[in-house]
C-alpha cells in the first residue's frame, strides 16, 4: 500500500483526505493508495513516524510515499529534512515532503507548493477586479504560510507589509496600529492565520473592517468554512472576497506531481 498523508496539529479541519480519496478513485488506484492524517503534538514526533514506516515497509508492505505539512510545522520540520528544493529554500517554509530512495537510503526533500497554489489562484482574481498594482498588500500573520504569500507578492511586484500580534521589527504592523490610512494604502489583505477555521468559526483577525471598501480584495487561506467571519465582514463592506479552496486544490495537484517526480526541483 502506498501511503500519503498530512502532518500538523490539530488536523480535524483538513479536507485533504477527502480530496485525495476522490483523486485515487478517479485514477483507479484506490486499492493501492491511501491518504491519512498524522496529528503530531510535537514536531519531535516526526522521526518516529518516519521510522515506523521503515518498519512497516519491511513487515507489512505499507510504504510512506509523500507528506503534506500544515500548521504549525511548515518551518519547524525543515531541520528534519535532508534537502530543500530551491523554491522552498528561498521561501523558508515547507508544505510538501518528497520521499526518495529505499527504506535504507531514504532522503526527505522539502518543497513548497503553497506558493504555486496561491499565485495561480490570485492572478485571476487580480485580473478580475483590475487590481491597482500601486497599492500594497497586508499579510495577516507571520507563520510558514505567510512566507509563501510574501514570495508570490514579490514575484508579482506587489509591495507588502506583515501584520502581527507581536511585531518583531519596525517593518511590521501590529493589529492595533491599523487605521484608515493603512487600509487606503493597502488594497489586498491576505489572512494567513488559522483564525476562523472550523470549529472556531467566530474568530477573525482584528482589523478595522469599517474602513474596507469595494476597492479591496480580502483573501483568506482558510477554506473551512467556505466563508469565514473575516470574509463575511469584508463582504459586508463591499470588498471582493476569496477563500483558500482554489489554492488548496492547486497546491495538492502540484504535490501529487512532485510525489510522482514530475518537475520535482521547482
Question: Considering the protein shown, what is the CATH homologous superfamily of the largest domain?
Answer: NAD(P)-binding Rossmann-like Domain
Mean pLDDT value = 93
The CATH class label of the largest domain is Alpha Beta
What is the count of β-strands? 12
Largest sheet report: 6 strands, mixed
Low-confidence stretches: none
Report how far apart the termini are.
Answer: 27 Å
Protein described:
This protein has 266 residues and is of the alpha/beta class. It has two domains: 2-112, Rossmann fold, CATH 3.40.50.10860; 115-247, NAD(P)-binding Rossmann-like Domain (Rossmann fold, 3-Layer(aba) Sandwich). It has eight helices and twelve strands. A six-stranded mixed beta sheet has the order 2-1-3-5-6-4, sandwiched between helices. A six-stranded parallel beta sheet has the order 9-8-7-10-11-12, sandwiched between helices.
List the keywords:
Rossmann fold; 266 residues; 12 strands; elongated; 6-stranded parallel β-sheet; alpha/beta; 8 helices; 6-stranded mixed β-sheet; single chain
Summarize the structure.
This protein folds into 2 domains: 2-112, 3-Layer(aba) Sandwich (Rossmann fold), CATH 3.40.50.10860; 115-247, NAD(P)-binding Rossmann-like Domain (Rossmann fold, 3-Layer(aba) Sandwich). The protein has 8 helices and 12 strands.
How are the SSEs ordered, and which strands pair?
Layout: E1 2-8, H1 16-27, E2 33-39, H2 46-59, E3 63-69, E4 83-84, H3 86-91, E5 96-100, E6 107-111, H4 114-128, E7 136-140, H5 144-156, E8 160-164, E9 172-174, H6 180-185, E10 186-191, E11 217-220, H7 229-236, E12 240-242, H8 245-259
Helix pairs in contact: 4-5, 4-8
Amino acid at each position: 500500500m502506498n501511503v500519503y498523508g498530512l502532518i500538523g496539529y490539530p488536523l480535524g479541519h483538513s479536507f485533504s483526505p477527502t480530496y485525495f480519496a476522490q483523486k485515487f478513485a478517479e485514477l483507479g488506484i484506490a486499492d493501492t493508495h491511501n491518504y491519512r492524517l498524522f496529528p503530531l503534538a510535537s514536531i519531535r514526533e516526526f522521526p518516529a513516524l518516519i521510522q515506523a514506516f521503515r518498519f512497516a515497509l519491511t513487515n507489512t508492505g505499507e510504504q510512506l510515499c509523500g507528506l503534506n505539512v500544515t500548521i504549525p510545522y511548515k518551518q519547524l520540520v525543515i531541520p528534519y529534512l535532508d534537502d530543500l528544493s530551491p523554491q522552498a529554500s528561498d521561501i523558508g517554509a515547507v508544505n510538501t515532503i518528497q520521499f526518495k530512495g529505499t527504506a535504507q537510503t531514504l532522503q526527505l526533500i522539502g518543497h513548497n507548493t503553497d506558493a504555486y497554489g496561491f499565485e495561480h489562484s490570485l492572478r485571476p482574481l487580480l485580473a478580475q477586479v483590475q487590481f491597482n498594482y500601486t497599492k500594497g498588500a497586508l499579510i495577516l500573520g507571520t507563520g510558514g504560510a505567510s512566507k509563501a504569500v510574501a514570495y508570490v507578492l514579490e514575484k508579482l511586484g506587489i509591495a507588502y507589509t506583515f501584520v502581527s500580534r507581536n511585531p518583531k521589527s519596525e517593518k511590521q504592523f501590529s493589529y492595533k496600529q491599523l487605521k484608515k490610512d493603512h487600509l487606503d494604502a493597502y488594497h489586498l489583505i491576505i489572512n494567513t492565520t488559522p483564525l476562523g477555521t472550523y470549529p472556531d468559526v467566530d474568530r477573525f483577525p482584528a482589523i478595522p473592517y469599517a474602513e474596507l471598501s469595494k476597492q479591496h480584495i480580502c483573501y483568506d487561506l482558510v477554506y473551512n468554512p467556505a466563508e469565514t467571519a473575516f470574509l463575511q465582514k469584508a463582504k459586508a463592506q463591499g470588498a471582493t472576497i476569496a477563500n483558500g479552496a482554489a489554492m488548496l486544490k492547486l497546491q495538492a495537484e502540484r504535490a501529487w506531481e512532485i510525489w510522482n517526480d514530475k518537475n520535482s526541483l521547482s
